[in-house]
């Protein structure tokens, strides 16, 4: 089971894992985080750098702009007029964007390397019954179950 850890799907994955292990004794269920696409991962790593740079600019812009040979732009003064509000906004929006970029929204179920169910494709979670049927149809039939009928006859 691959799931989006940042979307808090771990609890659902644990429930599905217990159900599968109970329904199919001896099955080995592996839980794994489904990472977001590479561009989203890179952008989520850049956001804290941008946040720190923006806060540093708000705090020390009076020294930064002259050293770069620039006159501080008018927007700098309007942002600096309310330093706390500006920094809080930068921090909140940055954290929201980072959280969004780190989530994949995935709950993918594989059986023997084959994709059985995809929340990304279906836009929904599988029910326990549906998942049990999907996995059960892909597992090899147990020799114990086949021979059980012969021993009772």
From TrEMBL:
GO terms for molecular function: thioredoxin-disulfide reductase (NADPH) activity. InterPro entries: Selenoprotein_Rdx-typ, Selenoprotein_T, Thioredoxin-like_sf. Keywords: Redox-active center, Signal. GO terms for cellular component: endoplasmic reticulum membrane. GO terms for biological process: cell redox homeostasis. This is SelT-like protein. The lineage of its organism: Eukaryota, Viridiplantae, Streptophyta, Embryophyta, Tracheophyta.
């Amino acid at each position: 089971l691959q799931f989006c850890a940042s979307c808090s799907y771990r609890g659902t994955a644990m429930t599905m894992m217990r159900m599968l292990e109970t329904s199919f004794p001896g099955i080995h269920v592996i839980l794994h985080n489904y990472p977001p696409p590479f561009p989203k991962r890179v952008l989520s790593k850049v956001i804290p750098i941008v946040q720190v740079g923006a806060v540093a600019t708000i705090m020390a812009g009076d020294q930064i702009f002259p050293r770069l040979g620039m006159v501080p732009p008018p927007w700098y003064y309007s942002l600096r007029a309310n330093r706390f509000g500006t920094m809080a906004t930068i921090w909140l929006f940055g954290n929201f964007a980072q959280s969004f970029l780190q989530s994949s929204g995935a709950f993918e179920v594989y059986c023997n390397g084959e994709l059985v169910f995809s929340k990304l494709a279906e836009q929904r979670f599988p029910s326990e019954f549906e998942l049990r049927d999907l996995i059960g149809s892909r597992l090899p039939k147990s020799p114990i179950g086949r021979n059980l009928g012969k021993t009772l006859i």
